[in-house]
Amino acid sequence: MDLASLLDRTHTIAKQAGEAIMAVYARGFSVEEKDDKSPLTEADKDAHNVIVAGLAALPEDIPVLSEEDAEGFAGVDANGRYWLVDPLDGTKEFIKRNGEFTVNIALIENGRPVLGVVVAPALEVSYLAAEGVGAFKVLWGNETDAERQPIRVAGKPADGTPWRVVGSRSHPSPDLAEWLATLGQHDMVPMGSSLKLCLVAEGAADVYPRLGPTCLWDTGAAQAVVEQAGGRVETLAGQPLSYANPLEKLNPYFVVWGR
Fold first, then answer.
1. Same domain for 119 and 7?
2. Do both 62 and 170 map to the same domain?
3. CB neighbours of 246 closer than 8 A, spacing ≥ 6?
4. Which of 20, 103, 159, 255 falls between 20 and 30 A from 51, CA-CA?
């Protein structure tokens, strides 16, 4: 299956997972705690089940690394591919009911995200990208997939214009103030989940520094969107954020640049 067709199918699966999440969101839910003290809800589990079943129904059998079953990951396939999934990114935002949570599905090939789907079901918006296809935003209210809006990063702000810096609502970092001091004049744009990367991809923000812990599944899908929109997701050493070793689930600190 070519990446354009696969992007369509993956978007459908992600939206179905979003429907499962919103069903829980509508009726109320309890919150459990994982071993790492992060929250877990019924919505995380339901979305995981929908995504795994949907990916299993695709023509090609590609292994799945999901946040909700990391231990069950069988490793990359013979072509260096695997699906990277966060069934509900931004569980804290889900619990707060502010709408800033997403479904993230990425296809990784030889350590790089070549396809990404980010669905924000409460906001009724999707961000889609695939190598050789482009990056797009889809507003569900007037959606037909033929009306996808191509997106592009904004580029470096003009001289004298403040940087628009997107930051986490739930994960402030003590290292961030020092980094921002070196950046110069800026305005902060708070946002939850992988939507932070998507704001850079669509040109609504200029940079997103993440000087705090994240995992592979938090970033893979949105990184595909950023890169296909002309941006960069780099470590502090200036190297592209890599997914070549899925056994190392923690990302290094990174910066998302819209230029």
1. yes
2. no
3. 65, 73, 75, 76, 82, 84, 108, 216
4. 255
